[in-house]
Amino acid sequence: MIGVIDYGAGNLHSLARGIVHVGGEALVSADPDELAAQDAIVLPGVGHAGQLLDRLRHLEMDRAILGAIDRGVPFFGICIGMQIMFGDQEEGGATGLGLLPGRVRHLKPGVKAPHMGWNLARLSRDSPLGDEGDERYFYFVHSFVADDVAPDDVVATTTYGETFPSAVIRNHLWGTQFHPEKSADNGMALLRAFVEMVDARRLVPAGVAGR
């Protein structure tokens, strides 16, 4: 079962339907203990990073997320959900969860913000998303991007006035700047890969599939 964090905003049920469509099971919940007990946790963030972090901390979701990740539970952050996986957030002057090294800043001047619509993600290394050099279209809605990210964590980049990380993976931590649930077949393929990773980790004895 994959827990989808309900923090009072976002197209949660569309994402849950996508997970079910590719063969997974999804539970939308605002209960941190219930979410922490699932096989994986997904955070489909929308809106303002500072407000999202405040809401997660008010609901004690940050505790649930960090505790689950330390036990080896897979985590998938989408859009702002990916951004708060890093540390310093320019939006709202907030501090993210610090799951990965990096910071988040506004898109550089000279382009329309938000970046909205279909764009190519180019795979920078082999990963569950595909082979190095592959290019696939995904749907984006964002004004901020991750920066100073560890190169080994980046699996795809996208160019919109500048080139930025559009997908990251480190072990059981996944993040995408784009919205897979809005990205048609390519998005469903990515969700399927995540479900398959979760299923594979469930078969590994406790303590082996750690962070």
Topology:
Blueprint: E1 2-5, H1 12-21, E2 26-29, H2 32-36, E3 40-45, H3 49-58, H4 61-70, E4 75-79, H5 80-83, E5 88-89, E6 94-95, E7 103-106, E8 115-123, E9 135-142, E10 144-147, E11 154-159, E12 163-170, E13 173-176, H6 184-202
Parallel strand pairs: 1-2, 1-3, 3-4, 4-13
Antiparallel strand pairs: 5-6, 7-10, 8-9, 8-11, 11-12, 12-13
Short recap of the structure:
This protein has 211 residues and is of the alpha/beta class.
Describe the protein.
The protein is an alpha/beta fold and 211 residues long. It has a single domain (2-202), classed as Class I glutamine amidotransferase (GATase) domain (Rossmann fold). 27% of the residues lie in helices and 31% in strands. It has six helices and 13 strands. The protein has helices at 12-21, 32-36, 49-58, 61-70, 80-83, 184-202; strands spanning 2-5, 26-29, 40-45, 75-79, 88-89, 94-95, 103-106, 115-123, 135-142, 144-147, 154-159, 163-170, 173-176. The strands form three sheets. The chain has a nine-stranded mixed sheet with strand order 2-1-3-4-13-12-11-8-9, sandwiched between helices. Strands 5-6 form a two-stranded antiparallel sheet. It has a two-stranded antiparallel sheet with strand order 7-10. Strand 11 (154-159) and strand 12 form a beta hairpin. 43% of the residues are buried. Mean pLDDT is 93; it is low at 206-211.
Relative strand content: 25-35%
CATH architecture: 3-Layer(aba) Sandwich
Helix content: 25-40%
Reading off the top of the CATH hierarchy, the class is best stated as Alpha Beta
Q: Summarize the helix and strand pattern as letters.
A: EHEHEHHEHEEEEEEEEEH
**Strand arrangement in the largest pleated sheet:** 2-1-3-4-13-12-11-8-9
Helical stretch count?
6
Give the oligomeric state: single chain
Could you say what the CATH topology is called?
Rossmann fold
Main structural class: alpha/beta
CATH superfamily: Class I glutamine amidotransferase (GATase) domain
Rounded mean pLDDT score: 93
Instruction: Describe the main β-sheet briefly.
Output: 9 strands, mixed
Radius of gyration: 16 Å
Write down the domain tally: 1
Termini separation comes to: 19 Å
Low-pLDDT residue intervals, each spanning 5 or more residues: 206-211
